[in-house]
Amino acid sequence: MRIKYIILIFLCCFKLFSQERDLNYYLEKAQKNSPLLIDLKNQIRSNSLDSLLVRATYKTQVNGSVLANYAPQIDSIGYDNAVTNGQTLTALVSARKNLIPKSIINSQANSFKLIKELLQINRKIAVKDLNKAITSQYIATAGTSEQIIYNQKIEKLLNDEGGILKKLTQNSVYKQTDYLIFLSTIKNQEFILLQLKQQYQNDLGLLNYLSGEVDTTFVKLKNPDIQLKDNLNSEKNIFFKPFEIDSLRFQNQNKIIDNFYKPQFTLLADAGYLSSFAIKPYRNFGFSVGAGLTIPIFDGGQRSLNHQKIAVNIETNLAYLTNFKKQYKQQLLQLNQKLEQIKTSENQLQSQLKIVDALIDAQKKLLLTGDVQITEYAIAIGNLIAINNAISQNQINTFQLINEINYWKLNE
After folding, report:
1. Contact 96, 60 (CB under 8 A)
2. Fewer Cβ in 10 A, N or C end of the chain?
3. How many CB atoms lie within 10 A of CB 55?
4. Please, how many CA atoms are within 13 Å of residue 210, restricted to the half-sphere of its CB?
């Protein structure tokens, strides 16, 4: 029974540690859990509701009102009955309709449309920022995982060589001190592997943290498939859209200012009961209609000043756009330059790796006959580890640069 229990625990642990997750898993979790994306989504919905609220004000507004008033005169002292009628009772249903020019309606509708477009752009950029951060951390975590796999192979190689060296030492081919030097190399590799495993656990924890998940499961990450995407026309790039929308908003604000100075028409109507009870109050049911017209004549020059303010904002927006275009171009140039530098470094590292591999193969043969110094062999092993770790780090840096370039170049 005890053996069955141990086997069950082993199978559960194997299943736990054999789980694999890919980049899309964390991207989906992050987008689902992000409060910023939820906030922007709700802002878009709120903007649509604001638009509907404004449209509702264009419709006829109907109100009901009841007012009773009594102003007595005591000993001929009191309000003038000619003004107050002594007492009044009003019970009316009134309707009011503002005749809004179509140009005003269109300008206000366009204003909400542009706000919605800006919010949608901001949400897309927020998704890009989140995806970039998640992808960057995933690359770093997966890179650590690859380093663990490689260093485990090195550890096995050292242990195998250590077993051979131990026998050679027992047969007096090597000194005891030589064996201890090599044993020190093995212990150092074990410590490096321990540090990498701890780093992987911490990197994985940070990846879960950025994804908004509470998870301490030790899982294996699939190798990231990070590829450089095709160039996008910079004029269509999502990062330029906010400047374009701001420019359209300023133009629309100029229209709204001009619309404010157009004549405003209002239609009024009411029906109900209005009486002072002075003469035949039972016959004081009726209705009334009316119309109003407001014509702006002089505002002290506010119209011109408001247009000047808009002109200043347009100039500022253009300055930011011009500077951003330069920075955008320079950013991509630098990233592509770094990518070329990494490729050059990769070639150098691969060349060094061939030499070190050949050296170690030769020394392994000499090890069996005692014709190689252990210190030299340990140094060669150290160089092999350093070069392979450098190659691994180079690959991580390549993926990080591609992630950065794709972030700037793509709208997805």
Report:
1. yes
2. N
3. 13
4. 21
Angle between helices 176-210 and 374-409 (to 10 degrees): 10
| Neighbouring residues of 134: CB distance < 8 A, sequence distance ≥ 6 | 23, 26, 27, 30, 207, 210, 211
Torsion over CA: 385, 387, 389, 392 (sign) = negative
> Which tokens in the block code for residue 264?
């405003």
- Which residues have C-beta within 8 Å of that of residue 97, sequence separation ≥ 6? 59, 60, 61, 266, 267
SS3 368: helix
Band (234; pLDDT cuts 50, 70, 90)? low
State how far the alpha carbon of 250 is from the alpha carbons of 254, 311, 317, in Å: 6, 8, 10
Structure tokens at 299: 């505002």
Secondary structure of residue 392 in the 3-state scheme:
helix
Highest averaged pLDDT of the listed ranges 72-81, 146-155, 226-235:
146-155
Q: How far is CA 326 from CA 234, 280, 320, 329, in A?
A: 12, 83, 10, 5
Nearest in space to 211 (alpha carbons), one of 140, 146, 135, 144: 135
- For 88-112, write each residue's pLDDT tens digit: 889 999 999 888 888 888 999 999 9
Whole-angstrom Cα distance, residue 167 to residue 162? Answer: 9
Q: Are strands 264-275 and 285-294 parallel, antiparallel or unpaired?
A: antiparallel
Query: What is the rounded distance in angstroms from the CA atom of residue 302 to the CA atom of residue 123?
Result: 36
DSSP-based three-state secondary structure for 62: strand
Reply yes or no on whether the pLDDT at 10 is more than 60: no
